[in-house]
Amino acid sequence: MKNILIPALALFLTTAISTALLGIARDFTAAPIEMQRKKTQEKAMNEVLPDASAFTEISFSPKDSIKSITRIFEGEKDGAVTGYVVELSPSGYGGEINMVVGISKENNLVSGMRILNHSETPGLGALAAEENFYTRFNGKKLSPLTVVKTSPSADNEIEAITASTITSRAVTNAVNEAIEWYTEAVK
Amino acid sequence: MNYTKLLKRGIIEENPVLVQLLALCPLLAVTTSAINAAAMGLSTTAVMICACCAISLLRRLIPNEVRIAVFVVIVATFVTLLQLVMEAYTPSINEALGIYIPLIVVNCMLFARIEAFASKNKVFPSAVDALGMGIGYTIGLLTVGIMREFFGTGSIFGIALIRDPSFHMLIMVMAPGAFFALGIIIMIKKYIEIKKAEKR
Fold this sequence. Notes:
Low-confidence stretches of chain A: none
Shape of chain A: globular
Oligomer: heterodimer
Strand order of the largest sheet of chain B: 1-2
Largest sheet of chain A: 5 strands, antiparallel
Distance between the termini of chain B: 26 Å
Largest sheet of chain B: 2 strands, antiparallel
């Protein structure tokens, strides 16, 4: 019995002390981490909706077809609403993808997409966060987009990242949800 | 215990990257630029020194049957601490290294040092050993990183040196390039060592 108790105790103490240490560290770093997240969020919002100087969160009616939407912000400049930033968290290949989609009210187009956080495969799905992929959504009209594996032949087609169809589809479907919300709630 | 010799061992004779060929997976991934290579090397060194010291301090208390599990928990705790600190205070490096920071936990070089040295020696020698291996690791990563960044994109540490795109060999920033660069650097190191031995 003793030769089971002692190893078990050692394991228990190790994990208990480690968890306590990590808990303390988390408390200490929670504020700066939150600040960093806010900064990245703000930067992304400004990038996806460039002609807005202030963002205010608005409420929306949740629906099954737009279940990835987490928050929606109204962008305004000089007192007029210039567009919206939709924040979504669709399920990607490796976990949740936190992203924002900008929709410009003036042009009725998708003004940009940025990925804030993801756990996609490095070198494959992770490329969705890079300029080469996120610029594919710039200027898209507000109709459902589809993912194609070859060069797009129509305006509503988005070229997938090679060998990362699941990630590409997850992001594109999220953009479609943003488009759907906008066309129903605003237009 | 000759500490200088112990330190040198990790840098030259038993360099984890250039001699032991350990931890090649993170090598492939983060040596696409010199600055990422340096950041990874320093992060791993920091974790390794902390983990080796902690385990060395506890070496008489850890029962043999559960030692691997305990080592893993201790290493994982230090890596998580590093991750929290980096996420809070160095977000750009955190983003650049991405998923490779948590992967430090499974870096076999760490466990090789813990099993071979830290679990059997006193704290100060363990710290020196970890430091030596860490410096060797960083040098290994840096040399590969500089080579890949220079031949792949014409810059070093982000400073563009050769802007002519026909000079940039794209394969150097992809996986095969990592192996090419590593092979060449090992070859150069061996050549220098053989020449030095011949002189004696």
